[in-house]
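Hello K.,

You asked for the raw outputs rather than the summary table, so here they are, unedited. I folded two proteins back to back in the same session to keep the settings identical. This is the first:
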Amino acid sequence: MGDTPSTESKARRRWITLGETIALAALVISALGLWNSWRSDEGTRPTPSEAKAAIPIAFRGKVEANGKALTISPIESGHSLESLTLTAGSKPAIIIGSDGRLDASQVQQLVGDPAKDKASSLVVRIEARYIEAGALKRGGGHYRISFRWDDGGLFGGDRLRLTGLGVA
């Protein structure tokens, strides 16, 4: 017995060679697929300025505590509120923090005495400082704060109750 390899070892060598050939073919096909996808993506990638256009800020209002407060928040979830400033004519401005909570007593300072019709609205300018895509921005617009006057009963005066916020 000597140097001649047996039939079993020759068959095993053939299978190893066939396995290597299949692996090499798979590697070449994968490389070609990667090159093809890389080549086709070259001109379609957006530049950073095209990636996401800025969206102007807009607000919504949610009445809370039976009209004693109004929470003003950005409609777009990508806007993070820093502060709000509300102005109505020549009256002193109301500055609200990042929570956006406006109390009825603050609006009552802008409105003054109760109106005869008991339901009304006030047009205000809302200026906002907010963060969008990591940059501090400013924006705003004119909005209408709706409210009504409730009778305070025997011992209390009229109380202002907020009912909503809309675009003016």
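The second followed immediately with the same parameters:
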Amino acid sequence: MRVGLIGPAGASGAEALREAAEFLLLDAKADAVIYLGVDGAAERLCLEWELELRAELPDGDFLTGALSAAVRGTPQEIETLLARDRQRARLAALRTLPPPPARAVEMIGDRIVLVVYDKKVLDEDDIANASIIVYGRAEAPLLKRFGPRAFFTPGPLARGAVGLLELDGEGRVVVATYTPAGEPLARELLQSRTNKLTVSG
């Protein structure tokens, strides 16, 4: 499971949000991408992106375009059509937060990831039940560990970072940040849920 995280777009605007979403959805192949703002920017992006992809199809319909391409299209036209349809399918992985003070929950392996806009709405029970708390309202990217838990934010999109949570080959959670264009910025390994004792003979 890979979860992409995009901070509030704010003044950075639709272009930066589109770039970040394309990187996380299409290049990083995140299973879910969560927009951490509550300003409606992700909803507008999804609508515009969907309309753009539909506008490139005959009559705006995939089946009509597929039939036309199968009968008269070149291999390149068929591949282009399929690539557009894959993009449309990937758009379903772009999610938004429920209105505050509601929370979203994701799983990374056996870890509970709690996602909110403003971490101030969380109470002790929320924090006690989560391994990773992700939040959107922040001034800059930050990863802070408190014992077995971690708080993470990619910060506002204008600060030039997006986040990605994933499991490494040993089942440990990795928190990585990238530029919206996909250039690596930082990568940190969180503690495993249980401490392992290694005995050397």
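The longest helix spans residues 75-91.

Happy to rerun anything if the numbers look odd on your end.

Regards,
P.
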